[in-house]
Amino acid sequence: xxxxxxxxxxxxxxxxxxxxxxxxxxxxxxxxxxxxxxxxxxxxxxxxxxxxxxxxxxxxxxxxxxxxxxxxxxxxxxxxxxxxxxxxxxxxxxxxxxxxxxxxxxxxxxxxx
Amino acid sequence: xxxxxxxxxxxxxxxxxxxxxxxxxxxxxxxxxxxxxxxxxxxxxxxxxxxxxxxxxxxxxxxxxxxxxxxxxxxxxxxxxxxxxxxxxxxxxxxxxxxxxxxxxxxxxxxxxx
Lengths: 113, 114
Hints:
The structure holds 2 protein chains of 2 kinds. By secondary structure, chain A is mainly β. Helix content of chain A is 0%, strand content 53%. In chain A, strands 2, 4, 5, 6, 9, 10 and 11 form a 7-stranded mixed beta sheet that branches. In chain A, strands 1-3-8-7 form a 4-stranded antiparallel beta sheet, with no helix packed on it. Chain B is mostly beta strands. In chain B, strand 7 (56-58) and strand 8 (64-68) form a beta hairpin. The radius of gyration of chain B is 13 Å and the shape is globular. Classes of the chains: A mainly beta, B mainly beta. The A-B interface holds A 3-4, 6, 31, 33, 35, 41-45, 48, 50, 55-56, 58, 91, 93, 95, 97, 100-107 and B 32, 36, 41-46, 49, 51, 90, 92, 98-107.
């Protein structure tokens, strides 16, 4: 079964550093998402992306965050200057329109020290 | 705004016992409702979904859920749990417009006693 792939599985970084989290959505899906889950809290929506532009973003998704689909397969989330509170599990998802289902990757655990 | 409440943070049941995980949602129209499961080190896997029609929906791994509009609930059930069901379970609601964001509940961690 096709799956969403996220790399790396765990990223450790120093506060103030830039990180890029990578996702390979399921082929032929056109809608992509990033969610995050701070330890012990809810899974929260960050941003959705369609047709090479952001379709919706949450208030969490401030100027420190950006998303990009640099080629036909990858979908990335960049955090320009990480803060301690960015430590979380970040999930990528892609949407299958025919089934109205979002498929999630295994997540990237980001630890900001 | 949409919201989801899962009142139980952690539930422990014995293997072979029945299970019900509670989920209450808030949404102004008929919602799209989902249950996802997350095993350790794994992504969120869809168990089942409700869009319309029959309010009792069947999912994978022997799970079912019932949509009750009057109670704004979408509780997940399984008649007999297996040790492999130990995981985190998330209820989510989406707008009935397809590719919209999902709003998740806090999650319920299920522990199975042998």
